[in-house]
Amino acid sequence: MDSKALLVCDQCDLLLREVQLEPGGKALCSRCGNVLYRCQPDGLRLSLIFSLTAAALFLISNAFPIVTIDSQGLTNSTTLLDAAERLFDDGIPSIAALVFATTFLMPALEIMAMIYLLLPLHFEKLPPGFSVAFRLIHFVKPWAMIEVFMLGLLVTISKLSALASVVPNIALGSFILLMFSVTAAAANFDRRGYWERVDGIKKLQGQLC
Ligand SMILES: [Zn+2]
To answer: 12 CA distance to ligand 1 centroid (A)?
Structure first.
C-alpha cells in the first residue's frame, strides 16, 4: 500500500514515494538500486543490545593490556592508552593525538551517543537534544577506526613474533568483539524506525498533556 510520504534517493536524487514493507524487507531505488530503507521490527532493540555490549567491551579493551611482549627476559605489557602516551613521550604528539582520537575518543563518543539515543526510547522516553546526538554520530563515525587499528595491530603482532615472544592478552580478543559489536549496532540502527518511534512518543505525550 502506498503512503503519501516522499523521499529522495541519496545516491541519484530520484524522487520516490514510500511504500510499506514486509518485516525484513528493504526498499530499493528503482533507478540505481540503492537501499533506501529497511523494515527491521527489532532493529532498534538489537542496536541497543549491541551498543550496550560494545560499551562493556570498550571498557575491558582499554582496562587491560592488549599484548605482552617478552624479549631477552624483558617483559612489557601495554594498553591502548599507554601506547598513545608512549608516542607522546617519544616526541610525536600528532600521531599520539591521532591514535587517541581514532581508537578511543571517537569510538567512545559513537557508542555513548547510540546508547543515549536508544536507551530512553526503550522506556518510551525521548532523550533531550536527540537531534544533536544524531549529528554527533554522523560526525564521529568516519573518524572511529577500530577496524584499521586492529588490522595494523595484527600485522604488527605477526612481524614482532619473529623477533620476540608476543602473547595476546584479554584486550586483543575484546577489541575484536568490540569491532563486531559496533558494526552490528550500526547495521541494526533503523533511522526511519527511530523517527517513527519519536513521532509516536511525541503524539502520546501530546495526548497526555
Ligand atoms: Zn537512486
So the answer is: 4
What is the secondary structure of 133-188 as a DSSP string?
HHHHHHHHGGG--HHHHHHHHHHHHHHHTTTSEEEE-HHHHHHHHHHHHHHHHHHH
Q: How far apart are CA 119 and CA 155, in angstroms?
A: 37
27 Cα–ligand 1 center, Å: 11
The cell numbers describing 181, all together, are: 559489536
Evaluate whether 182 touches 141 at the Cβ level (below 8 Å): no
Angle (nearest 5°) at CA 150 between 148 and 154: 120
SS3 call for 7: strand
pLDDT digits (tens, 9 = 90+) for 182-209: 999 998 988 888 888 888 888 887 755 4
Kindly state the cell numbers that stand for 105: 575518543
**pTM greater than 0.90 (yes/no):** no
**Domain range summary for the chain, segments of one domain joined by +:** 1-39, 43-208
Q: Cα(190) to centroid of ligand 1, in Å?
A: 19
